[in-house]
Write a structure and sequence with these properties.
Number of domains: 2
Number of strands: 13
Low-confidence stretches: none
Bound molecules: magnesium ion
Shape: globular
Largest sheet: 8 strands, parallel
Radius of gyration: 20 Å
Number of helices: 15
Distance between the termini: 29 Å
Structural class: alpha/beta
Mean pLDDT: 96
CATH topology of the largest domain: TIM Barrel
Order of helices and strands: EEEHHHHHEHEHEHEHEHEHHEHEHEEH
Length: 389
């Protein structure tokens, strides 16, 4: 089989709000076509314009090649070999950052082709099935312009997620810092107020994670608040510090009363090695697109197993990335949860409409995917409607 074309579609929701914290407002969808009529689908969570340029830009020298030109004519059934080819051939532009994110979308599409060609779900080509079903957690982002609206909206989301059948949920509690919500700037004690209100609303059995989105720039300041959360039984706190402060992460691993999670932005196994070996994070959160695709995500899962860490993949795009996360989790027994927000509970029209026939929660869990490839279909009308270039 040979790759005959690579198509990039840049999608945007109709009213993009640059002040919103959600990256689910845009997308790049890549389609890899083959001479046998099989097409693979992938996406990634980075500026779609930058990713498209990384794919389509023609190369000017041997270490600065375009990703598309390196794939044309290649055998799509060898994703691991092609990963190394793309990584090396783009090294002076890539190695980290947006080029790796773009490679992630392409690698996802290659695995989709592999599964479709074999007539098997991708996970069956990737490893042994986990013994238990995949458990999704709901990622909950509040709305509102005042502290009270924010707190009450998050509590309402948490209750709705529990009623929907979720046994776990992640509360976005970001009242200050680079990701602060809608102009809010509140003292740290108010974060504790929000966490306490959520715990009271969902009861003691519900697994509660908290994402503070890089809010603190000082470990001691972070610990003052995190120590107050001991009583709330937090499953993990996500990205408490600026992400390059790995020594700070290591201190939190030793001193905070709950596990520390990070990894949503990280590219490649090399950044995860730093995160786990220097930052000592307890829970690694690869985003399949951003880390460099399923090929690289599988390597990160292997590294986490060797270091006795948990994997809880990040996913904030559409049903394409969610499917990739589910296939990854299917062969990763040390992955207790995946980030999964059902379209019905999501604000983003892209998330709601782009993918047809996606995985459904049954009794709080996700059955292992059964259809060939990633097992998803794009809604062609939605693709046309959201496409801007
Ligand atoms: Mg996060």
């Amino acid at each position: 089989m040979k790759i005959t074309d690579v198509e990039c579609h840049i999608l945007l929701v109709p009213e993009v709000d640059k002040d919103a914290t959600s990256s689910a407002q845009d997308d790049i969808v890549v389609l890899i076509h083959t001479d046998e009529g099989i097409t693979g689908i992938g996406e990634t969570d980075v500026s779609p314009q930058i990713a498209k340029a990384a794919i389509e830009t023609p190369g000017t020298h041997t270490m600065g090649l375009g990703l598309k030109e390196m794939l044309l004519g290649e055998n799509p059934l060898e994703p691991q070999r092609l990963w190394e080819k793309l990584y090396t051939g783009s090294a002076m532009n890539g190695r980290r950052g947006a080029v790796i994110c773009a490679m992630g979308a392409l690698d996802m599409a290659l695995w989709d082709i592999c599964g479709k060609a074999a007539g098997k779900p991708c996970w069956q080509l990737m490893g042994e099935a986990r013994p238990d079903p995949i458990t999704p957690y709901a990622s909950l982002q509040p709305t509102g312009r005042s502290f009270e609206e924010y707190r009450d909206s998050l509590v309402a989301w948490a209750v709705r997620a529990k009623e929907f059948g979720f046994t776990a949920g992640k509360m976005e509690v970001t009242l200050s810092g680079p990701y602060h919500h809608s102009g809010l700037n509140e003292p740290d004690e108010r974060m504790t107020e929000v966490v306490a209100a959520c715990r009271a609303a969902v009861g003691p059995e519900f697994v509660m994670m908290v994402d503070v989105q890089y809010t603190w720039d000082d470990v001691d300041v972070a610990l003052r608040t995190l120590n107050d959360w001991r009583e709330f039984d937090i499953y993990f706190v996500e990205t408490p510090l600026q992400i390059d402060n790995l020594e700070g992460y290591a201190r939190l691993h030793h001193e905070a009363p709950m596990p520390i999670a990070a990894g949503e932005w990280q590219n490649t196994r090399f950044e995860f090695a730093d995160l786990m070996d220097i930052g000592l994070v307890d829970v690694a959160q690869p985003d399949v697109g951003r880390v460099g695709g399923l090929t690289e995500a599988l390597r990160v899962c292997q590294m986490a197993a060797e270091r006795n860490r948990r994997i809880v993949p990040h996913c904030w795009k559409t049903g394409i990335g969610i499917a990739a996360s589910a296939h990854l989790a299917a062969v990763t027994p040390h992955c207790p949860y995946i980030e999964f927000l059902p379209a019905r509970l999501c604000d983003s029209l892209l998330r709601k409409e782009l993918v047809e026939d996606e995985l459904q929660i049954e009794g709080g869990v996700l059955p292992l995917p059964k259809k060939p490839g990633l097992g998803i279909e794009l809604n062609a009308a939605a693709l046309g409607r959201f496409k801007v270039s």
